[in-house]
Write a structure and sequence with these properties.
19% of the residues lie in helices and 24% in strands.
């Protein structure tokens, strides 16, 4: 089974909306406007590109990233890898042609089936709504979180408020940086039925 990794820039109060400056959010660009940049705090981003063998995105994140990321040197390792977009509305005509092979998935069942295929880790960038749905469905295996020392208040959250059973996590890597950022890598603990 392939590992599904959710990676996110997240505020201390759980907001993931518009970290890079996407329009429409009052605190857009909070990752670089409000916290001193320390390159070592972002080393995990390079590691993710080396570890991942495919990328999973929701429609909104795909439409935001696909016009920009294919030509960005910072994301060069993602360009050739297969991409999967979960959407009920996109068609093949909506996909860009310069960002590697892209497949549209129509449901969480399609994502579950993808996880059963051969291959390495699949990484999810952005895609707040998709992350919440995947988490609630028990499909995410690992979280890579860069926690920013900010309280943003309103905004899209990484985790849903759905009433559900406790899901345990195991901290497998962590580091705190001089600028207040914290790296937290958690594996989702699967209950073993005996």
């Amino acid at each position: 089974m392939r590992t599904l990794i959710s990676t996110a820039f997240i505020s201390l109060d759980g907001v993931v909306e518009a970290p890079g400056g996407e329009p429409g959010y009052r605190n857009a660009g909070w990752t670089f406007k409000d916290v001193e940049f320390l390159p070592e705090a972002f080393d995990i981003k390079g590691q993710e590109q080396k570890e991942a063998t495919a990328m999973l995105l929701g429609r909104t994140s795909y439409q935001a990233f696909s016009p920009v990321w294919p030509d960005m040197e910072d994301f060069a390792d993602y360009k050739p890898m297969p991409k999967y977009v979960v959407s009920t509305t996109l068609t093949d005509d909506d996909l860009v042609s310069n960002w590697g092979e892209t497949t549209i998935l129509r449901s969480l069942d399609d994502v579950a089936a993808l996880k059963e295929t051969e291959g390495g880790p699949i990484i999810i960038h952005g895609s707040a709504s998709l992350n919440r749905a995947l988490s609630d469905a028990g499909l995410i295996d690992r979280y890579h979180l860069l926690v920013f020392p900010l309280l943003l208040g309103a905004g899209k959250r990484l985790f849903s408020t759905t009433d559900k059973d406790t899901r345990k996590l195991k901290l497998v890597d962590h580091e705190a940086y001089a600028n207040g950022l914290q790296k937290n890598v958690f594996d989702v603990i699967r209950d073993v039925i005996r």
